[in-house]
Every structure is written in C-alpha cells, then in structure tokens.
C-alpha cells in the first residue's frame, strides 16, 4: 500500500491572500491587479493560456519575484520581506524539471533536503517514504537520465515534499506528459490533497483543472476573468452540452449564418462551428432539418474551454 506523506496542520484559515496584485515589466502588465484568497487544504488553480500571468503570480507567491504593487501574504507573511521564512513552508514544482542528473534518484532527494538544513536521521527515512509515494522505490539507485518524463515529474514532486511543506506550488505540472503519465501524476496530487496539502497549480489544460481544482480563477492578459469551482463556472458561462460541427474550413463561416436560431449561442472557429445548447442531439436534429450536412458532428458536455472562449473570444491553447 502506497503511503502518503504526512502534512502538518496550519492554524490559519487562509494561507494565501492577494489584493490588487500587480507585476509590471516596463509598460507591460504581466499581472494586472488580481485579488484572491486560498484557504488551507484547498486545491486552487490559475487557468489560462501561455502568457496570461500565471507563472508570474506563482513566482511572487514563492518570493522569487517581487511584486510591483498590491498586497500579498503567504502563511501570514509578506514574501517580499520574509522570503526565506515563506519558502520554508513551500514546496515548488517548476515548469521544467531541474533535477541533478549527476546524482542518482534517491540522492536528489537527500541533496535537496540539505538545503533546508534537515538532519540525516530525518532525510533517509523521508526520502524512502517519498520514493514509495512517487512509485520510484525500484529506481532509487538509478540515474535520473534513465527515467521517463513521467517518472522525472514524480521525482520532482517528491523532492518538493522533502521539507513537509504546507503549500505545494505546481507550475504546469503535466506539460509534455503522455495521457497515462498525466493520470498517474493526478493520482499522486489527489492523494496529497486528501492528506491536507494546499495545492496551487497553473495549467492551460481544462481537463486537468476540472480534475484537480476545488476552485480556480480564469486568467487572461494578467486579469481575472472569472472565479469559482469548475462546475459553477461551466453552469454560469456555458450550456449543458455543445454540438461541434465541421463543414470544411472554407465553409464553416458561411454555414454559421444558416445555423442562427439553433441553440443559445454559436461560435465559429477556424476548424469547426460550436452550437451551445442544453440538448445537443436536438440541436443536431435541427441542423439536419435545415438540410445542412456537416462532414463530422460531435455532441459533448461543456467544459472550461467553453467558459474561456465565452469570456475571451479565444481558445485556451493558442
């Protein structure tokens, strides 16, 4: 049976609080006045396309990038003033794995633990516990370069837990992983959430946000466009179902005009037409009744991708 790392309980109801948080680079507003609170034990997501300001926000939370203006506290402390104290409570999983390939798998955990001044008597058993949690026990003596992408990602997460952090920051945790590796990683993160770790993650994958996040903010161009649970955002900004139609790239825009009145809303994308309706099959029947024959059709449930499209007029993945 796989063990889950123990996590110390925090006395504070809110572990992260941001008010009118800004980060500018010259005339560019990377983060443009966002506000949010994260209670202890929540899985909180920043959902948006590349360049939306998600990673910049994470760097400010982690105390590695100072804010331009606004208020920010992590565990009740200002990370600009108390960076080392804040980072002592954090585990950080960066976008790109930065493991030491000169060290073996278990040695990566031991070496990282020494940065926190942790004693060897603690680090040995803790490293073994984390390797078991990451399903890497049989790779403990192996070289990092021999690991698959999914294994390296799990090792990076295990390394971030060496100091028993109260908050785990995950920046695009599954980018570049195949579907099986993503699902294994989701399972590990869900176990951490069950154990009481507060998860803060950035992603541009709608399915990942729906799977992992209790609550999220939709971010675009440094601003928060909407906030809520995945289900609540879908209910508020989309319909129950979506009918996807493909008539061919040269015909989609032309045919879209002939679809008016079907469903509650129509979106025309370069490769398909989306009809938003509570009953997708009924919408498809209405399309056929007008003598229109799409090359392909698909009825699916609404997703966070549809929420983002409604709020911004563009796809999450540009």
Automatic annotation (TrEMBL):
It holds the Pfam family ABC_tran. This is ABC transporter ATP-binding protein. GO terms for biological process: response to antibiotic. Keywords: Antibiotic resistance, ATP-binding, Cell membrane, Membrane, Nucleotide-binding, Translocase, Transport. The keyword Nucleotide-binding applies. SUPFAM superfamilies: P-loop containing nucleoside triphosphate hydrolases. Residues 16-246 form the ABC transporter domain. Coiled coil: none annotated. Belongs to the ABC transporter superfamily. GO terms for cellular component: plasma membrane. It is a peripheral membrane protein. It is found in: Cell membrane. Its main location: membrane. InterPro entries: AAA+_ATPase, ABC_transporter-like_ATP-bd, ABC_transporter-like_CS, ABC_transporter_ATP-binding, P-loop_NTPase. GO terms for molecular function: ATP binding; ATP hydrolysis activity.
């Amino acid at each position: 049976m796989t063990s889950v790392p123990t996590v110390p309980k925090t006395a504070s109801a809110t572990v992260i609080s941001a008010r009118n948080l800004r980060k500018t680079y010259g005339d560019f507003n990377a983060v443009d006045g966002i506000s949010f609170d994260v209670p202890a034990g929540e899985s909180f997501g920043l959902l948006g396309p590349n360049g939306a300001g998600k990673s910049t926000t994470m760097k400010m939370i982690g105390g590695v990038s100072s804010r331009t203006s606004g208020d920010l506290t992590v565990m009740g402390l200002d990370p600009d003033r108390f960076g080392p104290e804040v980072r002592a409570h954090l585990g950080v999983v960066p976008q790109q794995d930065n493991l030491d390939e000169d060290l073996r798998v278990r040695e990566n955990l031991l070496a990282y633990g020494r940065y926190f001044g942790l004693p060897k008597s603690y680090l040995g058993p803790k490293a073994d516990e984390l390797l078991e949690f990451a399903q890497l026990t049989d790779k403990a003596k192996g070289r990092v370069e021999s690991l698959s992408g999914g294994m390296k990602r799990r090792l990076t997460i295990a390394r971030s837990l060496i100091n028993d952090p109260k908050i785990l920051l995950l920046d695009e945790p599954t980018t570049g992983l195949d579907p099986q590796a993503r699902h294994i990683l989701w399972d590990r993160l869900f176990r951490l959430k069950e154990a009481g770790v507060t998860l803060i993650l950035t992603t541009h994958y709608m399915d990942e946000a729906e799977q992992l996040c209790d609550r999220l903010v939709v971010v675009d161009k440094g601003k928060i466009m909407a906030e809520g649970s995945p289900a609540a955002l879908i209910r508020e900004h989309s319909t129950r179902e979506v009918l996807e139609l493909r008539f061919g790239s040269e015909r989609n825009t032309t045919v879209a005009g002939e679809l008016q009145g079907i469903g509650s809303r129509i979106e025309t994308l370069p490769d398909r037409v989306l009809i938003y309706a509570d009953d997708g099959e009924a919408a498809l029947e209405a399309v056929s009744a007008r003598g229109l024959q799409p090359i392909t059709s698909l009825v699916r449930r609404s997703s966070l991708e549809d929420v983002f499209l409604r709020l911004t007029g563009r796809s999450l993945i540009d």
